[in-house]
Each structure stands twice: as structure tokens, then as C-alpha cells.
Amino acid sequence: MVASPLPSASVSPHDGQSSRFLVCGLGSLGQFCVSVLQEFGVTVGAITLTEPITWEIPHLADRLDRLLIGDCRQPQYLQAAGVEQCRAVLLVASDERVNIEAAFAVRLLNPTARLIVRSAKENLNELVGDRLGNFVAFEATQLPAPAFAIAALSSEIRGFIQLEPYLLRVVKASMTRDHRWCDRRAVHELNTQTRRVLSHIPYGQELPTEFHQWQPDATVQAGDLIAYVELIEAQSLAATLATPVITPKLSFWQRLQQVGSIQHWRQRGLTYWRSTAQQQTKRVALLVGSGILTLLTLGTLILTFTQPGINLLQAFYVSGVMLLGSYDAVYGVLNPQDAIPLWMRFMNLTYMLAGTASIAVLYALLTETLLSAKFQLPRKRPPLPPEGHVVLVGLGRVGRRVATFLHQLKQPVVGVSNAALESSVLPQLPVVVGDLAASLSKTNLATAKSVVVATDDEMANLELGLLAHRLNPNIALVIRTFDPAFSANIDRLLPYAKVLCAYDLAAEAFVAAAFGENVLNLLRLNEQTVLTTEYRIAPQDTLHHKLLSEITYGYGVVPILHERADRTVRLMPTDDTRLGVGDRLVVLATIASLQRIERGEVVRPTWLVRIERSLSPEAGFDGANAIARISDCSLPLARDVMQSLPATLPIPLYKHQAMRLVRDLTKAQVLAHVVSTVEE
3-state class of 653 per DSSP? Predict the structure, then answer.
């Protein structure tokens, strides 16, 4: 992604341009962008070169303010669509050239509109962004690719977030009875300086629709699902995805017996043979070498037992010479005065023919190796992994990005394509080329970890997904779709599959960028798209001088990084952090959270803290400090409350905020509890 200077996080009322947006290009991505924009309650117009034959979202055209059929690069169409009054223009046609040309045309007519462009040309995007300003470029297939890759891992990990120099991961774990948290920890105790809880779902309950819909004092129990974001080391990324295998420690004699067993060597031989399935040269060399070794051994034994006076070394030498085709040397070593038996002449002839053929093959293999090294001929792709791999069907732009992401995670991948790839494209990826359905059985599907079906045809994706499930009912299945209604139907009918609508995922990031947010990446959690969004606090922002608790619970986001203007960085900042001008804030947000921020719709606090009594004189002093720090009330008011106990703090708080205050007061030896304003 390429972005203009970081936007501010203002949620104050906007000017007259705030309610009008323009979408250029009504393909699948454009239609999804229109749909998501309309959820914000804004006015949306559109320009498309040709009207869609079928609308993927029913009645979408009727909800458009203006729909123009024409070239979005032409000023007359842009003016007719009201581009001068638009707050943002989304250029999402399938042709990147059209989008870039249209961006220049829009900028001439509206110098301030935010431009969100669909383009994969990173260098050009950066140059154009510097020239036009207030410009963001995405590649529509780049954003969903990590979501497909993460879904294929069949692990607890839901995504990764790169915040230089930090790497964070989002995990959704199912609690077992032997888990270190089970029956030992309250949910709020899981929050640390490097970890933040995103959701807690008790066994049997429905998925939450917002962040913070969990009870802080609830005890973690078996069967609960807990989602959290935590800091990890970059070098341990691959290790976090691997399933640990515990092998029992064997004694010396047990290891010796294992190495000496026929089963051990047979298993090793089969493993090596399978690993050379895509390298026929190695198999030929292995067969030729085994044949020569067999003939040498057989000849040595025959000569040793049939020729008196010849020792084992001489017999081995004679067998080798016969393979090299030296007739005279053979019978010079034997007794030249004796007549040569006829069977020995046939044996010599057989060895000469076998030796000549073997040497010819070995010379050919050696020549191929030398030529490949000298002229740097294209190398063959690596062999198929025998087990634990991801089968990736479809190696278009999405498939290639998914493969690249999985390789970065050190995950074994096998590609399936109906056309051969150039040797320079993903050279480390084993590829099975041919009919996609027929090729599935050639990918070691029975031992694979998961299948990702990511072709450009969603009906073919469904067919291939069902075929993969039939061949291996236990395999994890990820299906790429485009139509939201079709996706929902498949999701209900195939509960074992993860169905991801590619343009639906990307559209939310495009729309978030249209409202001024700097979207770093996206991931899927609890059947929702979660956007990693970055803000910079400006003097006119209503967020200026606010406590982080008001933003966290008022708008329903999860702050994961706070950087002050002096470059002081804190991960998982506390709720009593106060924002200042120039601060950078990175949050996890759903599209609903962004809608509330855009509209300035703050959820009001509805909880009060009832303080009964303090257990010591020092407790009153410490309790007043805790009240002032967490509730954002003045210190004199906090001291007045502590001097007139029992009393209720007259400032409403959010539930998590109020319960944290009660816990801090308890530590200061002050008895308090939480009450709802509804109860009051």
C-alpha cells in the first residue's frame, strides 16, 4: 500500500464534502465498495464504462445517487457526477492504467479530494502519490491474500501485524483442561504489556459482534474460546506455526536396534523415493547405481564359489572389470590354461552390456549436471512434500500472493495449475501442472494439511473444494468466492469449509481508506473483518487530550500501539493513557467501529462505582489518586468523594473501566463495587 502523509483522526463534523463519494468502476470490487459506503449513510455516485449485465448486490443501482455510463477519465463525466463536491473518489476499475489516468483528471477538478486507487504498480503508485497528494493505492488481491493463507494453516493463529520493528500475531485459542489459564485465571488477568484480549466466548455461546463484549472477572474454563493479540519475535514466526512433536528419548541399545531393523531402512527408503517424485533424474541415477551394486555383489559371490584359488578381493575386481567390458583382463586373472566355461562367457557378455548401458546413463546425467551448472539452465522445481503441506489450487495473482505469504511463514506448499509457470515465478514452489481436478490426486492430498481453492472461477472453486473433501474428508478447506449471497449459502451448507469472499474483504479496506484512515492490513476474526488502522492526532481533533479508555470503549476499538510525539512507543497502552497532538495511535477496528468514528457516535458510559469505606488512612490517599487517574475526574473531586464515604462516584464509566477502578481501589484497601446507572 502507498499512502499520502498520515491522516488525522478527527471525528468532528465535516464540511459540505463529507457526505458525497464517487466510485469509478462497477466491477465486483466497485459494487462491494458502494455497498460498504452506503452502510455509512453517505451519498454515493458511480461512473462505469459499461453497465453491469448482472448486479452482484441486488438493487444496488437503485441506491446510487447518480449512475453515469462513460469513461471516468473524461472531465465531463466527472463533473456530471459532482466530483468537485466529493470528499473521496475510489478508482477501482480492473485496468490500472485507467485508474491512474483518472486520478490525474480528478485531481485537476478537485485538489483536495482523497484518492483511493486500485493499482499493483508499487513504484508508480509512490511517484504518483508524491505528485497528487492525499493518495492511497491498494492492490485488490494483495489485501485478502494473507487472510486466505492464514485460513489454510488450520492453527489457532488468525493473522500477523507488522508494526516496525514489532511483529504481533492474533490468536484464537480453545481452552483445554490442561491449559495453563484454565480454572486459574480471570479473563482480565490475561492482559499484559505484550498481550491484549480481543474476545472471550464461553462454551456454547454465540460469536460476539463487537470488541469488549466479555466479562473481565469471568474465570477461564475448558471449552472457552479466547482471542488475543500478542507480541512475538520475528525469528520465531515459523516456529509459532509448527505443531510440536514430542518423541520419547531412547536408550543406546534401543537406537541401535532401531537402526539395525529392516523396517527402519525400508521406511527411510520409501521416504526418500517419495521425495524424488518430481526429480526423475535422481530416480534414474538411484536405479542405475542400485543395479551396478547388485551386479558387483552377485558377480563377486559367483566367482568366489565357482573358481578355486580366487579370493574375495580378486572376485570383486573381476566383476568390476567385466562391467567395464575388459575381456582379456578378466581371463588373464583367471587360469588361462583352462578352458573357459560357456556360462562364464555368457556372464561376461551380460556384464559388458549392462556396464556399457549403465556408464552411458551416468555419463548423460553427469553431462546434464555440468551443462546446467555452466550455462545456468533453468532448475527443476523441488519435489512434493510428503505430508503436512498446503495444496494451493490456482496460481493467478491471488494464488501467487498466498504462496508467497505461506513461504514467508516457512510452510510447505504445493501449487496446482492448469498452465506451466515460468521458472522465475515462485522457483521454490512444487507445481503439479494439468487438469485441476485430475491433478488433485497427485499432490499427496491424503497427507496434506489443508487445501486453498483460489481460482478466478467461483463455481470451479466450489467443485474442486467438494472433490478435495471427498478425497480427504479430514482436510481443512478454504474456498475463494466473489458473490456474497453465494458465499453465505456455501458457508451454511459446508460447515467444514472456510468461505472467504475476496472482494468483500478488500472493499472494506478501500472504504476505510476513503474516510481518511491509513489501513495497514486486514484479518478475519469471529466471522468479521478486522482492520489494523493508523491515526495521527491533530490539534483540531476531538480525540485530542482524551483518555484512551474513552476511545477504546466509546468507539469499540482495541489500541495496540501508542507513539508519542517524542517517539516514545508503548505496545498495548493502558486505558489511562492521554492522547496529545502529534501522537500516533494504531488500533484494531471493525467496519462498524469505523462507522462510529466517522459519525462521531460515542457509546455513552452507563456504570458507576459505589465506594463503601477505606480500611486505613493511607487507603483514602491512594484511592483518590486511583480515581483521578482512571476516571478522568479532578483530583479535588476524588478527594472529596473519599472523605465522604460511603459515596458514589458521580462520573459514569464504561464497564471495563469501572471494574478496573474497583480492582485498583481494592489493592489500595478501599472497599468498592460496580453498579449500573440503569439500576440506579
Answer: strand
